[in-house]
Amino acid sequence: MTYHNYSDIIIDISHENLDKTYQYAIPDEFLSLAVIGAPVIVPFGMGNRTINGYIVGLSNEPKISIEKIKPISSVIEGAPVIESHLIYLAYWIKETFGGTINDALKTVMPVKKAVRIKEQRMIVLIKPVDELRQIYEEQIKKNSKARVRIIEALLNKNILDYDKALQILNIGKPVITWLIENHIIKIESKQIYRNPIDSQSSPQTRVKLNDEQESIVDNVIRDYNEGKLHTYLIHGITGSGKTEVYMDIIAEVISKGKQVIVLIPEIALTYQTVNRFLERFGERISILNSRMSDGERYDQSLRAKKGEIDIMIGPRSALFTPFKDLGLIIVDEEHEGSYKSETTPKYHAVEVAVKRAELTGAFVILGSATPSLESYSKSITGDYKLYTLTKRAKEANPPKVWIVDLKEELRQKNRTIFSRKLKELIEEKLNRREQIMLFINRRGYSGFVSCRSCGHVMRCSHCDISLTSHVNGKLLCHYCGYEERMPSNCPSCGSKYIAAFGTGTQKVEEIVRREFPNARVLRMDTDTTKKKGGHQRILSAFANHKADILIGTQMIVKGHDFPLVSLVGIIAADLSLYAGDFRASERTFQLLSQAAGRAGRDAIPGEVVIQTYHPEHYSIITAAQGDYQEFYEQEMLYRRLMQYPPVAHILVVLVTAKEEDKSDRAVAFAAEALKEYININELSSQVIGPAPAGLAKAKDIYRRLVYIKDEKYDVLVGIKNYLEGYFSYSGRFVGCNLQFDFNPMSTY
Ligand code: ADP
Ligand code: ZN
Ligand code: ZN
Question: Which residue intervals of the chain bear CATH 3.40.50.300?
Answer without folding.
Answer: 211-385, 400-445+502-640
